[in-house]
């Protein structure tokens, strides 16, 4: 049973560039949430996708956008990168709207903006 | 916005000792989750709590959902070196799994 997978593992970008991160949810899960984790902090919720639509969004600017595909995998796009966007980006999957509220995380993508 | 506080911020214990950490908030939460994160990896779910007063165990780990729904604690008994890591609590308010708020974490170090 494959867990949550993310790609790439590491990424280095320059200020102003755009980046796309990818996530495949755990088998049987249909909901994907994205989090940003700065060094030394807890994960911060970016947004959640279910049925290919954004259901909920955290306090992040429009530069952060996403997409969910029919196979439940998801992408996180960040435009006009800032130095402050450097962080570990985590994807978590769950099975909603069933009773299972437990979210399972992938290993993350470490983004460095120079 | 909703915030979670975790204490202690960090702790050093001897192998074999019991550990207790907690998570508090000024807001009410309907679900509490406890995660452990190792360096360079994503958080791993340890325990999920869904009802006020609920006490749940997972091996040497025990967690409780506070009666006021504003706090939760995690206990680890007979700590071992692999317990080292950062422990995060996460709370959710609407029972639909839409938005989990994470605490800043408790960093646990276990001395042999």
> Which structural class matches the secondary elements of chain B?
mainly beta
Number of strands of chain A: 11
Number of helices of chain B: 0
- Biggest β-sheet strands, sense, barrel of chain A: 7 strands, mixed
Fraction of helical residues of chain B: under 10%
| N-to-C order of helices and strands of chain A | EEEEEEEEEEE
Mean residue pLDDT of chain A: 92
What does this structure look like?
The complex is a heterodimer of chains A (114) and B (112). Chain A has 114 residues and is mainly beta. Helix content of chain A is 0%, strand content 50%. Chain A has strands spanning 5-7, 10-13, 19-24, 31-37, 44-50, 53-57, 64-68, 74-78, 87-94, 104-105, 109-113. In chain A, the strands form 2 sheets. In chain A, strands 2, 4, 5, 6, 9, 10 and 11 form a 7-stranded mixed β-sheet that branches. Chain A is globular and about 40 Å long. Chain B is 0% helix and 53% strand. Chain B is mainly β. In chain B, strands 2, 4, 5, 9, 10 and 11 form a 6-stranded mixed β-sheet that branches. In chain B, strands 1-3-8-7-6 form a 5-stranded antiparallel β-sheet, with no helix packed on it. The N and C termini of chain B lie far apart (40 Å). Chain B has strands at residues 5-7, 10-14, 19-24, 31-37, 44-49, 55-58, 61-65, 71-76, 85-92, 100-102, 106-111. Chain B is built from no helices and 11 strands. The mean pLDDT of chain B is 91. Classes of the chains: A mainly beta (114), B mainly beta (112). Chains A and B meet through strand 4, strand 5, strand 9 and strand 10 of A and strand 4, strand 5, strand 9 and strand 10 of B.
